[in-house]
Write a structure and sequence with these properties.
The chain contains 18 helices and 15 strands. The chain is α+β, with helices and mostly antiparallel strands.
């Protein structure tokens, strides 16, 4: 694994005047639960809009797993303001239901009691539903109820134009942007263990989630299992890091290689999925029997993205226009925030991503892939152990030593961002994280474990108390009438759009799928 080496910090400094134009967006999932803590069985509330066409409120895997989406903006505070507004609006229509503020679910019944998200009778709506049915058959429905926060990040056109002109690059501006973003992604993968170390917030879970499986977790209190030094069980093999995809070979060494790897996976038949079948009694139970049904099935902690046109697959969008932004997917819900994420987390991510962008980023070979994957797995299960070591070029290095080294590199960009916005938040968060390296009890995961140990009543009562407190706080902070009207109008418009799509479908579902995969 290469060090985070930044060969020309002056180049970054010369471009720092453009950093105030960084665009950010957030996608946040939360389970809807009943007052007794069980998963809500009610349909997605009609007054929140049509999940197929509402740009702000949709669902992820389950009908009971709403997803709130903010618009990309260069106003650094607006994403969290907007996310709070969406929460406030949603709570106007949830009745006695509560948004669960932990990534790991709790009181879970049988798998078939987890309702699949519904999107209506249109071909595009049916495709989204069948895709989710397929995920259930492939990985189990329980895994799909795990919630997280996705962070979307892009640098402004003025930044890229100035950066492009400062380098001797023979290709187009968009090729340059895509190449630099892929370099950022490679460095992120090398050091992404920093995110669960500091912001992992799922060290413990309810025994009901395990369904009597034999797992390497200790009992924290009766009914609660945990990893003594775990940071993010969500990102372990109990959650999204599913072993079923370990055979996939998707390269991040260039955008064409990344696209080719995903397109191969969505066109290559899989023996087990073939055995499951595509249809049962004339009804679709998955989109196809290939390694991936669609690109989004590939579980990665970061993705290169471009906004797709109607009916356009993600890889086609990337091939058409190159990378537009990146999506960071490693964040657990922050249970101490009423909306699941805090501004200081965004401040750290921005500085970290900039460090990854400006650092040297050689291609990743198979040995290095194994190394960074093992480091990530180690941190999510054992990262708070005081003597935990990581692999660095096949040598064991103390985690705290590597983390401090990386914070040194990242701090330069924290200073640049603070200068761009005339604040101190980015530098302050680095100071806070350095302190956490001397006392892991200060991390989100450390705070959660310590609190459950003190209370002695378990994961569920603690999580329920936090979730209920957050609901009350959001209900008590009322929306301005014009903001309420805005979200109401968007919900109403989404139903009109959905009805129009359903009315104008002119081809069969089979033909629709064939066109999509063509």
């Amino acid at each position: 694994m290469q060090p985070l080496n930044i060969p020309d910090i002056n180049k970054a400094l010369n471009l720092s005047e453009h950093l105030s134009g960084i665009k950010r967006g957030i996608e946040k999932e939360s389970l809807r639960i009943q007052p007794d803590g069980c998963l809500a069985q009610t349909p997605h509330p009609y007054r929140l809009g049509a999940t197929l066409t509402n740009d702000y409120i949709t669902t992820d895997y389950s009908e009971a797993l709403p997803e709130f989406i903010t618009k990309a903006t260069s106003d650094r505070e607006r994403p969290l303001e907007e996310l709070k507004e969406i929460h406030q609006f949603a709570y106007q229509h949830l009745g006695d239901e509560i948004l669960w503020n932990m990534s790991m679910p709790c009181i879970m019944g049988a798998e078939n009691d987890i309702p699949i998200a519904r999107y209506g009778s249109s071909n595009s709506g049916k495709m989204k539903e069948v895709y989710r049915l397929g995920l259930g058959h492939r990985y189990g429905r329980l895994m799909q109820t795990i919630a997280g926060v996705h962070y979307n990040f892009s640098l402004p056109e003025s930044f890229w134009q100035a950066f492009y002109e400062s380098e001797s690059f023979s290709g187009s501006l968009q090729d340059f942007i895509s190449e630099k973003y892929m370099g950022l992604i490679r460095n992120y993968l090398r050091y992404s263990w920093l995110i669960p170390l500091f912001y992992g917030a799922s060290p413990a879970l309810c025994e009901s989630f395990l369904k009597n499986k034999s797992v390497d977790l200790d009992e924290l209190v009766p009914g609660t299992r945990y990893g003594k030094y775990a940071t993010s069980l969500r990102m372990s093999d109990l959650g999204y890091q599913n072993k079923a995809q370990s055979r996939l070979n998707v390269s991040y060494n260039s955008l064409p290689e990344y696209i080719a790897g995903l397109e191969s996976a969505i066109s290559t038949p899989d023996d087990f999925y073939t055995e499951v079948g595509v249809q049962k009694e004339g009804e679709y139970i998955q989109l196809n029997a290939n390694t991936l049904q669609i690109e989004n099935e590939f579980y990665s902690s970061i993705r290169p993205k471009r906004v797709s046109q109607s009916g356009e697959r993600p890889t086609k969008a990337l091939r058409r226009g190159g990378i537009e932004y990146i999506e960071v997917r490693a964040l657990d819900l922050n249970p101490f925030s009423e909306i699941g994420i805090e501004q200081k987390q965004i401040a750290f991510l921005d500085a970290f991503l900039l460090a990854c962008l400006f650092a040297e980023s050689s291609p990743i070979n198979q040995r290095e892939t194994g190394e960074y994957q093992e480091n990530f797995r180690g941190v999510v299960r054992h990262g708070r152990h005081p003597d935990f070591c990581l692999s660095f070029n096949n040598k064991c290095r103390p985690l705290h030593e590597l983390a401090n080294y990386l914070l040194d590199k990242i701090s330069v960009f924290s200073e640049m961002l603070d200068s761009a916005y005339n604040i101190t938040e980015h530098v302050d968060v680095i100071k806070e994280l350095r302190h956490q390296l001397t006392d892991f009890n200060g991390t989100l995961s450390g705070q959660i474990v310590r609190k459950i140990e003190e209370r002695k009543d378990g994961f569920f009562p603690y999580a329920m108390e936090l979730s209920t407190q957050h609901k009350q706080a959001l209900i008590n902070s009322s929306l301005a009438p014009e903001i309420l009207q805005f979200y109401q109008s968007k919900a109403e418009e989404s139903h009109v759009k959905k009805a129009s799509i359903e009315k104008n479908d002119k081809i069969s579902f089979e033909e629709f799928l064939a066109n999509y995969y063509q």
